[in-house]
Amino acid sequence: MQFIRYRRGARSVRLGVRDAGGVRDLRAAYERYRTLGGAPDAALAKALRQASLRALIAADARAFHEFLRAQAMQESERVPEEAVTLQAPLHDPGRVIGIGLNYRDHAREVGQEVADFPPLFAKWTNSLTGPFDPIPLPPDVTALDYEVELGIVIGRRACRVAPEEALAYVFGYTVINDVSARDRQFRTSQWLAGKIGDGFAPLGPAVTERQDLGDPLVLELKTWVNGELRQAGHTRDMVHGVAALVSGLSELLTLEPGDLIASGTPAGVGMSAKPPRYLRSGDLVRMEITGLGAIENRVL
Known about the structure:
Elements: E1 2-7, E2 14-19, E3 22-25, H1 26-35, H2 42-50, H3 53-59, H4 62-70, E4 78-79, E5 85-87, E6 96-99, H5 104-109, E7 120-123, E8 128-129, E9 144-145, E10 148-154, E11 170-177, E12 180-181, H6 182-185, E13 201-209, H7 210-213, E14 220-225, E15 228-234, H8 242-252, E16 260-262, E17 284-289, E18 293-298
Parallel strand pairs: 6-16, 8-13
Antiparallel strand pairs: 1-2, 1-5, 1-13, 2-3, 3-4, 6-7, 9-12, 10-11, 10-16, 11-13, 14-15, 14-17, 17-18
């Protein structure tokens, strides 16, 4: 299933699931689940009221989940997709953990060696924005860059997880643009300043469940700027694959449901062009990953 957060007109944000029939409203689906004899679940009901995918994942509502997969969408649950505005599908993760230099071709293009454990940085929730929302260009920034990345959403608490078990701790995947202000990023030896700007992490269009995507190491990642293909990478080029990242991070801290990992970008970033090709006001950035859909954001 593909989980989304959406707004219809002036109404409040809701949680939904996308399928071929449109958008399935999860609050309406829960009402039918209860009518058909499903047990009440206070944590699930609260997550739906809050429109929080993080809380929904943490609620671990397996019976409701099975209901969604088994029961066809009813008309009372159906919302036309063309009538909704998609929001960031995960807007309140406990952590957003960025992974640096995790594609061999990207490491080569910036003249860096790959490491036994990759560089880490943080982004915060202020950076998260919707899959079609604008990317703000701060007045002091002249080197705004794009980075298409596979976003990994943690599904259950993970502490010192072995690599061969790590994928079972993943809830799903999404597309994330790790927008980076390079002139801020390299003011110090740490990258944080260039990563944490408001709206510097467009996300979406959905969070696709792990079992519906399949092998995360057979995915193509692409970025277009104003229709020109800039990045064309493949997750098989990752230095540290999804399982290795989840396992390695779980040795450093306990990962919690809804935590988000931005797993690194392939070659083709604006910084590495000669001369550099940074984003300007008005540019349209489109990113796509196999099986996850596309996000498209204009720089303003």
